[in-house]
Amino acid sequence: MTELQEVQITEEKPLLRAPGGPDPGKKHQVETPYGIVTITIHGTPKPKRPAILTYHDVGQNHHSCFDTLFHFEDMQEIIKNFVVIHVDAPGMEEGAPAFPLGYQYPSLDQLADMIPCILQYVNFTSIIGIGVGAGAYVMARYSLAHPNTVEGLVLVNIDPNAKGWMDWAAHKLTGLTSSISEMIMGHLFSTEELSKNTEMVQQQREILSHATNLPNIQLYWSSYNSRRDLSLERGGDISFKCPVMLVVGDQAPHEDAVVECNSKLDPTQTSFLKMADSGGQPQLTQPGKLTEAFKYFVQGMGYMASSCMTRLSRSRTASLSSAASGDGNRSRSRTLSQSSEAGAPQPPAPTMEVSC
Predict the structure, then answer these.
(1) What is d(CA 247, CA 179) in angstroms, rounded to the nearest whole number?
(2) What is the Cα–Cα distance from 310 to 356, expressed in whole angstroms?
(3) Which is the most buried residue in 28, 59, 214, 228, by most CB within 10 A?
(4) Is 179 within 8 Å of 155 (Cβ atoms)?
């Protein structure tokens, strides 16, 4: 009789997905109270780890907004440790047909209210959110409403303020002289990028000019311009309860708004990354630098502690090395500082303001 041998199967690459769970790397449509939303899932569940959930900006979908970053070589070391869920705003997925005339597009608040349905569908209880522009606002709004489900936020080009009367008037005036596509281009790219007509600008303009779902994009754009003020206040009741990394390009259209947002957040929970020579889309123009910063950010929450840090990460954590050397087991932390053993007081973490 043939002798039986013990075979060990690791959890990193399970042979079977969880019963009833969605297939990794495939698109799924999730029903919500505000309509159907399309998500794309990559990776396999890891025990006791959140999913990385992304939300794109106006005029983009998850491919055009995040593929450059998530396909970057160094990023693979990070995403192999997490499930990644890319969310396409309603009507923004590739091949989406135009909504019928008179369709009521969800507000940004309602887009945020769709996320609990997504998490229920994929059977995750917590996330690390990454949002760009309008998507950053959606992730921020969701985090304020459901703080216990968000372990960290990366907000690129976030504008937490509602449009004032002057902004509203300027927007209406611009709409009389510029097309929707050109207004969105001005939202996505810096004046310098537009004047130089860079390759990325040309590609985005081409996408918008041939978009069969341009009416949908206009609806998403309208919802963004009708957003409510997040009413963030440092030390106030309305604030993020998790570590936050703010990212903006130097001379980007939203630079002032991100700087203002940084001034309203808890400095012990916030890192601010201003990236030189990155224009309006740092996740596309500087994926390497953003990947390094994101790795440090994730390690600050107690994940990937054994991962080899890159040059940028090492330079940012040198001041914390003595505290880390005495504690090999890092628990998850709600700050950017090193975690200590349960019950011990947490030292305040400095705000990381970096110009790359």
Answers:
(1) 28
(2) 14
(3) 59
(4) no
The more confidently predicted of residues 160 and 345 is 160
Beta-bridge partner residues of 154? 130, 245
Q: Read off the pLDDT band of 179 (50, 70, 90).
A: confident
**β-bridge pairing 26-32 and 35-42:** antiparallel
Cβ pair 53, 155 in contact under 8 A:
no
R_g of the chain computed on alpha carbons: 21
Report the percent of the chain where pLDDT is more than 70. Answer: 75
Instruction: Determine if the pTM surpasses 0.90.
Output: no
Q: Answer whether 75's CB lies under 8 Å from 81's CB.
A: no
| Cβ neighbours around 103 below 10 Å, total | 13
Largest CA distance in the chain: 85
CB 26 within 8 A of CB 15: no
The token pair at 308 is: 């080899």
* Through-space distance between the first and last CA atoms of the chain, rounded to whole angstroms: 66
